């Protein structure tokens, strides 16, 4: 059957089964106008011509020559698109599916995320040192009245000049009720196998420490080995004692 849009007069050729006997609501794909399309039986009944009137005189009807009617062929305007029917219909103008994802964009986003994580990990190693760089130092000796402690984790970073700097901050605590002499501190850096790869001496911040008191110290070294993973601090034995 043929549907004609009452708004823009666009004609559509659709199967009778798409509209049904009782008709249904349709929408023009050209101007988006919506109207109720009658069923094919209703349209055929409305378009059927009324029967011609009966001749008044039988004799005239028999003898009069019959007028020969000719019909010009109808040229139907081709329907560019099928009108969309409201609801889930196979003749809908717009397909009821979601657009496919672009795999190239998805893999690009994943690659960018991995690059950011890798750059952050490299920056953290350059600033704070390798993940295995620990503060596992000796601390208080068995026969010592003093204890050496780290205030915070060692800070390892690269300077603008390109040199690598290691700085540590700690404190010395007098664990007794008597005044104690404060010795220097030996700092050792060890690799993964436990071998010493770098060492230096931290000068005592003061010569003696009152009972139950503590004193802080700071130290920094440049161009330490990159394979250093463990820091060890211990007191240098005092002369004569």
UniProtKB/TrEMBL annotation:
NCBIfam families: MJ0042_CXXC. Residues 43-100 are annotated as: Disordered. This is Putative Zn finger-like uncharacterized protein. Keywords: Membrane, Transmembrane, Transmembrane helix. The chain crosses the membrane at residues 106-128. Residues 64-79 have a biased composition (Basic and acidic residues). Residues 1-36 form the Zinc finger/thioredoxin putative domain.
